[in-house]
Amino acid sequence: MIRFDNVSKRYPGGHEALRGVSFHIPRGQMAFLTGHSGAGKSTLLKLIPLIERASHGQVVIGGHNLAKIGRRRIPYLRRQIGIIFQNHQLLFDRTVFDNVALPLVISGLRHQEIGRRVRAALGKVGLLERERAYPITLSGGEQQRVGIARAVVHKPPVLLADEPTGNLDPELSREIMGLFEQFSQVGVTVLVASHDIALISSLGHRILTLRNGQLVAGDGSARATA
Amino acid sequence: MSARPPKRGGSFLPVYLIRHAQVFIASLGRLYRNPMSTLMTAAVIGIALALPATLLVALNNLQRLSGGWNGAASISVFLKQTVSDGQAADLASKLGTWPGVSSVRTITRDQALAEFRRLSGFGNALDALNSNPLPAVLVVKPARENEPAAVQALLLKLRQLPQTSMAQLDLQWVKRLAAIMAIGRRGVLVMAALLGLAVLLVVGNTIRLDIQNRHDEIAVTKLIGGTDAFIRRPFLYTGLWHGLLGAAIAGALVELAFGLLSGPVSRLATLYQSDFSLQFIGATGIGALVAAGAGLGLAGSWLAVSRHLGDIEPT
To answer: Which of A62, A63, A102 is opposite residue B224, by nearest beta carbon?
Structure first.
């Protein structure tokens, strides 16, 4: 589902964030991406929804070579990917319901269908009773769950999360990871960037480790897994 | 999964229309929630549109007024020096019976001299002359004054009279007035173009600020797959609403201005025994105002959107 083939990313100015990264995450698999800050986790995630483009190598998502997706088709690629951010990226001038509804509004769904799906997603993250609240009135963990509901409301086949538990206490973090596991069990391919080694190694999923822009473990080859 | 736009099947159009209707209403709601800034912008647009609109309506009224005078052309018949005042009076009463003539006024040689002395300032020079050099004049008012051919025929007939030295149709001043009004109209159009440009910039700047204020929303929307058209739409509608509100304010201002003027104008007209009354902007004028406001609002927001929306990308 997510395939990187010898991918490098060099930013203007010469900083090389990723060097020759290759891996494949099959459909429905859940994987973690770890490494020190600056190792290239965020850059790697940004290549998947084409927030950044690879300088070298191929990124293939669901059979689509991203190099061949032009500017005008990027929105349709992004609709296939749910993205969760450490800082939630919620819109504070609208309610929880409206935040979660945004991807469906963009897709042009009808009103009743939007209501049904938003409530299903909010139910999934346990915030059904807060749909009329504004994000500012929610706790950090609740805001993160609103972000997750928004990322999954349109049932994307790929889910990305960048440090989703960055500011949360261990119990909440484990709860959030549990949600991701549930999504992968219904066939969603999940890639979570996190530096919380203790938490992610306790969950028993595949772990890709980046160091200075190079994948040093978890690429699926014999060398790395040995 | 696919990274292609959805197929445009039978259900495409309703969804498209529904989205437009939603944004149409939502953008109005957004303006309603910021009444002060909305009103300020709309008022600036309104005043900018009202100025040329008022002047154009005023020019139209002036044209109507001079159109009424256009027919009041008269023919000045300058008689030969040999024609005495008595003969001139006889000729005047004879011409008065012609079918093509409505009335005849006689200016005797003495009257002409007195008028010339009064108006020209050459009184002393005239005193040096032994005799009055001025001819008598008959001012002939044509009966069918609105038919140029009939007036022209009358002019020819008057020229062929043995007593006539020269006959002249007094249309010059009407032509001059028309020329002056053509300049006025051109000037108003130039001013309208400049003020239209100002409206464009006002709307463009308002939308630019709006885009800056909603930077995060735009970035998030792009991130979750909003197309450029989807993101552009609310801003274009906001510009449209600003233009429409501005046009409404302009229409009200023009109506108010002419409402205030119409009383004094008709009193003045009565004093001149005229039934002239001020013509207001009318449905066509309001329609043109609304079209101009909507067009400028849309164009201004389009400018801002195409300049600034591309700068915002998710990071």
So the answer is: A102
